[in-house]
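User: I'm new to structure prediction. If I give you an amino acid sequence, what do you actually give back? Let's try with this one:
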Amino acid sequence: MPGKQGPFGSANGLWAAFGLAGCAAVLTWMLGWLVVGVSELDERCAHGMVGPGGSFRVERSGFPPGVRCVFADGSTVSAGDFPGWVLWACVVVAAACAVLAGVVEFAGLGQARAVVRFGILAIVASVVLAVLCACVPLVMAPPGREPLSTCSAFGTGVYEKASEVRRAVFPPQATCVYPSGTTHELVPAWWGRMAWAALVVVLVTLFGLVRAVRRHGLRPPVPVPEPEPEPEPESEPGRS
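Assistant: Good question. You get back a string of structure tokens that encode the predicted 3D arrangement of the chain. For your 240 residues, that looks like this:
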């Protein structure tokens, strides 16, 4: 998306910063899971290697990845805190860059290239939303797999044989349903929040695309470079 875009210049640098911050967030998220897995904090708490000892409960979070041992006296021992802070910083930077880039894109609606820019943004946002809504439930609960395997007690904590697995497209979810009426959601809630955010981005980009098309048409005119002026002939020496 080259070229100037309104009075605020080009959004290319903001989109590049958004991409870098997004990649850093994904890498930090993966690093957080690695730190949490290697720490084996729940085992260390159970053997009294950390914390005051005694009874405790384990609290886990997926975004950011983390695990905490909360003891009866209120003291807490946690793992994965530092990657979590870095992850939130990357998310804030990425969100700020995306909002600023969107403002710059809308400032450039007066140019014909806005049709192409918003068209690309709408396609990318729609693909992200489709991946979240279609792939996440299928990955968490693949079709054809037995509910007993999909809703394993090791992952759900429910020691009961599931009767069925219900899948929802939006927000993406796969729910284990048990004969007693108990349910367990396999897809973490933050995936649903990401899907809502992606839907908002799709609607905003479609709004920008409609405005750009109404202003310039489906096929914006291709700018023709102006011919360079011919150099004036130099006067010969000695001639007035």
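You can read the tokens as a compact description of the fold. Here is one thing that stands out. Residues 1-8 have pLDDT under 50 and may be disordered.
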